[in-house]
Amino acid sequence: MHFTNTSEAVRAWVHGWALSRGAAEPDASPWGFTVNIGLPGHVMSHVLPTADAATVREITASATGPGVWLKAFVRAESLASWIAPGWSLPGEPGYLMSTPLRPARSPAPLPHGYRLRTWTRDGVTHARVSAADGTRAARGQTAVTGATAVVDKVETHPAHRRRGLGRLIMHTLTDTAAEQGATVGLLASTAEGRALYETTGWAVSAPLANALRGPDPVPH
What we know:
Blueprint: H1 6-20, E1 27-29, E2 32-39, E3 42-48, H2 53-62, E4 68-72, H3 76-82, E5 87-88, E6 94-100, E7 115-121, E8 124-130, E9 136-145, E10 148-156, H4 165-179, E11 184-190, H5 191-199, E12 203-213
Parallel strand pairs: 3-4, 10-11
Antiparallel strand pairs: 1-2, 2-3, 4-12, 5-12, 6-11, 6-12, 7-8, 8-9, 9-10
Helix pairs in contact: 2-3
């Protein structure tokens, strides 16, 4: 499977991401999608496959409650100049990344003293690496929708980094997705995570900037 442009990739990503997060099916609109998350700090996300100043200003001006996110696949400095008052860009800019998926010839090695467990629930495959004492060392999950697998929530505990656990999680998730029929992987990466993903064959498809509607200042 090959995406001809960023918009196609984003459309595939948002459906897998919503499934991974246990959210409702994305609601389509002329400018993109809205995903209802329902958490206090993440009420919903507006996802714009393409973004321009007029559209972003209209959406952000109409969202007046806190906890609303906007995801745009543009450079962070562009999004920062378009958002309405009350919005900010938290954290580092990110990236939409992709890779072709093929079943692995051999499993990735498991470092000594660790245990890998995988399970699938409600269409989402989870991978977890536990240390010898049973504590979580690394984790991640993937949701397959058709030919696309969206990898999500990959993290390694600081005490267990530089031992190949992140690479193991990625190989486990992508191998499982390929076995389920997925031919392309997508993920939203932080700047820090980009280096890990690039070493496992992923490439940047587009920049990703996130904006958040915060609470209005308390009057004095």
